[in-house]
Specification:
Elements: H1 3-48, E1 52-56, E2 60-64, H2 72-89, E3 98-103, H3 106-112, E4 124-127, E5 130-134, H4 145-164, H5 172-182, H6 189-197, H7 217-231, H8 234-242, H9 247-251, H10 255-270
Parallel strand pairs: 2-3, 3-5
Antiparallel strand pairs: 1-2, 4-5
Helix pairs in contact: 2-4, 4-5, 5-7
Organism: Sedimentibacter hydroxybenzoicus DSM 7310
Protein name: Peptidase MA-like domain-containing protein
Pfam family, one: Peptidase_MA_2
């Protein structure tokens, strides 16, 4: 083969290689462009599903992502079924609609309320005229779809309480006890009996401390309010909420006398 022929063949091979490389670059560029396009479309789809108004009636507005729409009818029903009883018992007439915002999961909820380290038990909060809670479709490890239907009523009671006393209330056993009682979050009778019989019922002071959850504060504060409703009625409870510094004066008893009476009620009705 002559030197001229060899150079000719080498030239053809180089042209082929360069052409192939260019094609590969074009394919790669096409793939990159396609990938970026798909990413943009995916982001657009995600952005389209944002929290928006999904339901409204004369008392409430409910806001959520579209994917949580299917639980809103049940939430609205739970609120409507309890609205009159709660507002009438507590002698409150709400001027504005209560705004409910539903978050799709525990993490999103905790992030949005600024409590990133909270446990899964925290699925709802209320402030002034607004309720924030986790979607019943994704309630986390400590709750169920059905329990969230009571949580929203619990939080609504807090909204009503804010309308009676618009500040941080000094007695948690009253605020959460009333919300738990009115939402019919009834304690487990067997668990309560075992705790009471073992002398593990908390004091009122325990239920007004940072250990509220640890001492089963929700369950035992329920019984405090149950006792108040049966012995004194809602009118007295409203007066106690309106003027917390005079609550024992309103009852006509000292703190110790009231606590002893509640403990006796607790043992007789929830213990052995």
């Amino acid at each position: 083969m002559s030197r001229r022929t060899k150079l000719y063949l080498i030239g053809i091979i180089l042209v082929f290689i360069l052409t192939l490389t260019a094609c590969n670059k074009n394919v790669s560029a096409d793939n990159d462009e396609k990938y970026e396009s798909e990413k943009i479309k995916e982001t657009e789809i995600q952005n389209k599903d944002s929290i928006k108004l999904q339901f409204e009636n004369e008392n409430f507005t409910v806001h959520s992502f579209d994917k949580d729409k299917e639980c809103i009818e049940d939430l609205a029903k739970a609120l409507d079924e309890n609205y009159d009883a709660i507002t009438n018992n507590l002698s409150v007439s709400l001027k504005d609609k209560v705004k409910v915002t539903i978050y799709p999961n525990i993490k999103s909820f905790h992030n949005n309320i600024g409590m990133q380290n909270a446990g899964d038990w925290l699925v709802g909060v209320a402030w002034r005229n607004e309720i924030y809670m986790v979607s019943p479709l994704n309630p986390g490890s400590q709750h169920t779809y059905d329990s969230l239907m009571k949580v929203i009523v619990h939080e609504f009671v807090h909204v009503v309480q804010f309308n009676i006393y618009p500040y941080r209330y000094p007695n948690r056993w009253m605020t959460d006890g009333l919300a738990t009682y009115a939402a019919k979050q009834i304690p487990d009778k067997t668990i309560m009996k075992d705790l009471i019989d073992a002398g593990k019922n908390p004091s009122l002071s325990d239920m007004n401390s940072k250990d509220f959850e640890k001492v089963n504060g929700y369950d035992f504060s329920y019984t405090v309010v149950e006792y108040l409703v049966k012995e004194y009625g809602y009118e007295t409870i409203v007066a106690m909420i309106e003027t917390p510094k005079k609550m024992y004066e309103i009852l006509g008893k000292s703190l110790d006398e009231f606590e002893n009476d509640w403990i006796n009620y607790l043992k007789e009705n929830w213990g052995s």
